[in-house]
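note to self: dont lose this again. the chain is below, predicted strucutre after it. 584 aa total, dont forget to put it in the shared folder this time
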Amino acid sequence: MKKKRFLSRLFGTMTIPAFASLAAVGMALAIFFVLLVIELTYRAIFLDVHISDLPNPPVVLVVEIIVALGGAAGSAYLAASKFRNSLERFNDFLMDARADGATDLESMQFAELRRLRAGVTRTVSKLRRENALLRETAFIDPRTGLANMIAVDKAITETLPLASFEAPAALIVLDLDRFSRASEQLGSYASEALLAQAGQRLKDELAGIAGPAGVALRDSTLAALQADEFALYMPAAGSREHVATIARAIRQAFAAPFELNGQTVSLGISGGIVMAPEDADSAQKLFRHAELALRLVREEATSGFRFFTPRLTRVARGKYKLEDELREAVANREFKAVFQPKVDFKTGKVVGAEALARWRRHNGKIISPAAFIPLAEETGLINQIGEQILEAACQSARVWMKEGLDVSVAVNVSPRQFERGNLTDTVMDVLKRTGLHPNRLELEITESMAVESPAKVAEVMGPLRMMGMKLAIDDFGTGHSNLSMLTQLPFDVFKIDRQFVSALEGDKQAPAIVEMILAMAETLGLQTVAEGVETERQADFLRRRGCTMGQGFLYSPGLPHQAFLDFLRAFRANPQPLDSRKAG
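---
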């Protein structure tokens, strides 16, 4: 009774504004703690996954907590301010009621407080629902409806400690074959739909696997990663044989094409596989090793699946070292152009040259293109290397032109340069800087590039060709092009691949193939260049069958700028028509 009388006297004598302030403070504290829990929960979802990858985890953690405190405090302050304003408006109402002679103020006061309490309860309930929804959607990939990277990382973290050599876990990182090309043709919206279809096909295929392999999929997580990659984590993989069975089933599932907006799209799928704890003991190592295995599949220009082995780590270390050296070489402009002459079969004159990239280290050591070109393609450094070689080639051709030498220069365009999308601007910028006329430049692309992206070739090369540049198909005869496709593309030159030229003297089929290519070129009104000419007999065979030009060690290896200039001057002073040479 004493306690009730004390509270009655306390609140009975308290004015509404004072009570409003006290209640607002209490409400602010309550909402502050609710929002703080929600903020920290939200951030923990992401911090739990990425904190180990950050440069200074403790600092980041403190910053995140401060941000969470600030967000909760700000929201609580706004809510409390609204609550206090409501009570003050209620006080004004009471004053008006007293003026009108109303007497049942106490019941009115508590009725208003009950309504306010109900409002607070609804707000807190809404925040709890939003928090639950946030936690649910934080683990879903919106493009495919599958789990996302956060979900698979969480699954690995929770179950990997339970894996053993007797009961191993496994991770497969999957990558769709030819998805980039399909996206280019379909557009971004349709490619998202195609990605969703691929994810659903994966899900359906895994659901249909039975037997021991099906047991291996128990409690597994199928997740969509970045771009066109997926991951399949199996905490109860059982054995390599079970995982291999699952990999074969996945590959077979993608043998059938996809149907999208009336179009048929063919995709393949490749994967890198790692077993735990044999080859990895953390989520980070699992993904790194699986991606190494997948990269090896890609480098071998194949599709399929490959298990990780420790040897791949050693290979990767060597590649990372070479990549660092490659980046340094690009920055220091260590890549130089050498020029291999192209000789007219009828006149014996040098009428052109192909610019070839050479990497000369600061210590004078020459690195073979076979050692650095694939890595440059993979890392994208080929774009800078290609531009440096293009500029060097155009500068040299400008010198030849000033000396009155009628010699054009041919430069290879890599697939990465072509896909980048700014090739036309790059070429035009280099021509402007060097002052070379467009009709002195020839661009070479491989036959496989022409086959895979004919529309893109026409779009990019068409305007350049209209300015006077020539376009050549390199390595002709090694791809799967057809006459119909060739007539639709803006080509000027076929380059016959060296494998056919070198086989002319020992292979019965090679002469027939070369004759067919030369006849096709004549029909289309195109020039031809035979690569890898090393003997007079090869040159004589090609000349007699109408080949336009020859290129190879019979005439000269690739020469640096000054040596090639001297070579051109010597040929100009003493031309030697090939028709006067005797076949060897």
